[in-house]
Structures are given as C-alpha cells and as structure tokens.
Amino acid sequence: MSEGRILALDYGEKRTGMAVTDPLQMIASGMGTVPTQDLIKTLHAYVSEEAVTIFVVGEPKQRDNTPSDIEAEILKFIRKLEQEFPGIRIERQDERYTSKLAMHSLVESGVKKKKRQDKALLDEVSATLILQAYLDRTKTK
Q1: Average pLDDT over the chain, rounded to an integer
Q2: Handedness of CA 106, 107, 112, 113 (dihedral sign)
C-alpha cells in the first residue's frame, strides 16, 4: 500500500467540500470547505505540506445514470487539476445521494437544525462520504 493521503473533493460552483485520509489511507476525515475559486491555491498549499497520492473527485449523476449539469464544469476542473498536479492520480467516485446521506448523518448525530442549514458543513460531510465510499470500493479489491 502506498504511503500518502487520499484527498476527496465534493466540487461545487461556489464552494468545494474537502476530506482526506490519514497517511495509511484507512480513515476519512472532513477538512472543511473552500471557495471554489480558491481551490487550486488551497490544494497547492496542502500538497506542499502533506504527501497526497490520489485526488478523488465526486461524480454527480442523475437517477437514470446520466451526468448532472455540473459535470462539464467538473471535467474542466479535472483538466486543470491534471496540469497543476501531474504526479497525483485522479479518480472519480459516484456521489449520488451523498447530500441526502450527509443531512441524515447530521440529523442522527444530533446537530441542531440551524447548524444543519450551513451548506459548507453539508459539503464537508458529503466529501467525507465520497471519500469513505471510495475507500470501501477500492479496499475490497
């Protein structure tokens, strides 16, 4: 197993949720959100401090498996990511229902309604769920 973190992104037009694994790639933890226009700069700062081996970018799909409207923007972002970080592999992870699951997990963990309305928190939890789904899918291989 490679040493280094896996960093997941729940890409959005306004802000992007971020989550990261521990160096052994076992535990997914939220690391907040960042305004999308600052995302590349934020990733450069993080990668200069921590070894990252894989970026996992959420892949939003409709119920019928067709891409969501934002997919074109995500593909543009992925091309930029490839240019900026040529040594880091990029993977995709289906992110259907992560927002619903994120909200459910916030409710179940007792987060107050006012705090649950914080879209940034929801994006961070969604990124964590995307990362955990990726770990679950790849660690069973």
Answers
A1: 88
A2: positive
Identify whether the C-beta of residue 73 lies closer than 8 Å to the C-beta of residue 81.
Answer: no
- Nearest Cα to 34, choosing from 49, 53, 9, 17? 17
Contact 102, 126 (CB under 8 A): yes
Domain boundaries, given as residue ranges, for the chain: 5-139
% of the chain at pLDDT higher than 70: 90
- Superfamily name and number for 5-139: YqgF/RNase H-like domain (3.30.420.140)
DSSP-assigned states of every residue in 75-116: HHHHHHHHHH-TTSEEEEEE-TTHHHHHHHHHHHTT--HHHH
**Residue 129 · residue 102 · CB < 8 Å:** yes
Q: Identify which of 32, 18, 16, 6 has the alpha carbon closest to the alpha carbon of residue 91.
A: 6
**pLDDT given at position 4:** 92
pTM, rounded to two decimals: 0.87
